Amino acid sequence: MTEDLVLLEEQARRFIDAEYVPHLERWHDKGMYEREVWTKAGEAGLLCATMPEEYGGAGGHFGHEAVINRELSLAGFDSFGAPLHSGIVAPYILHYGTEDQKKRWLPKLATGELVGAIAMTEPGTGSDLQGVRTSARKSGNGYLLNGSKTFITNGQHANLIIVVAKTDAAAGAKGVSLMVVETDKAQGFRRGRKLKKLGQDAADTSELFFEDVQLPADSLLGTEEGQGFYQLMKELPQERLIVALHAVAMMERAVALAVDYVKQRKAFGKTILEFQNTQFVLAECKTEATIAKVFLDYCIEQHIAGQLDTVTASMAKYRLSDTCGEVIDRCLQLFGGYGYMDEYPISRLYRDARVLRIYAGTNEIMKLLIARSL
Fold this sequence. Notes:
Elements: H1 3-20, H2 24-30, H3 36-43, H4 62-74, H5 82-96, H6 99-111, E1 116-119, E2 135-139, E3 142-152, E4 160-166, E5 176-182, E6 189-194, E7 206-215, H7 228-264, E8 266-267, E9 270-271, H8 276-304, H9 310-333, H10 345-353, H11 363-371
Parallel strand pairs: 1-4
Antiparallel strand pairs: 2-3, 3-7, 4-5, 6-7, 8-9
């Protein structure tokens, strides 16, 4: 934590506490964040922190992104899609886009004028990205995009969507390309329903439909077709590191909530904290959260240095999300019946954390990737 990271941490915390936290319950009840949440984040410099200044970003490294994401999660803002917008969508454009694409899209992503999403998953295709059926076939000077996607984060607000599509159906992984769709200009694009989920109620996870969407030639990310699978594989370690980061922040928050509760709640004439079982459970949970954070910090250091490999990122995603579920479950138990009540933050935390073991590649897929290194 260098001086600039500490200052960013303080700035982000003050902004989130003032602008977001007072509205959190309303947004959860409504099941959606308001659109201005994005523009406010952009005005505060909390979007695209790692993008170069020449493209409207803050010119930072992943450590800056990590600090912002951590503060969002510590404040209970786990459903907000900014980590995907800034840490996944924008890097695809920076790393693989043409100069014109970078200048056109990145500054608007940094201000929140554009909200980013990436559309990978299809109704019949999850982790097996080679099996996507969405197609982008040549049509005149551009492409004709057809297909459907599901489980898309930022699906209701997104107006810039990177779509995983087949430009050559017969070429397997080599036939996959990434197409960038600006939805305001896309006839034939349709948003489906906002999906009702177990947790993360305010996240606008949605279905998306593309029916003969005519795209210009420069909608292809980069200059060459068939590079999509390679591009996806190169960026997935950062996506998995972002999931691990949220897992650690969520378990830290769970421990803090539990400690605060057991200090106040009384049973049999003394606080719950005075029982040895409570002390042992929380001692174990705090230890697990601390070990997790040390490994996470190591992974972040490796990533900033350009040395984080796919196997280590997979280890972080799998192990820390698993540990997060275990820690939150044990903390919720200390609340007794109140832990099951939705009005208590620990209840929402329990539900929200479950998806960490599923998205960005299931933990079973992570184990396969790790096993290949043996």
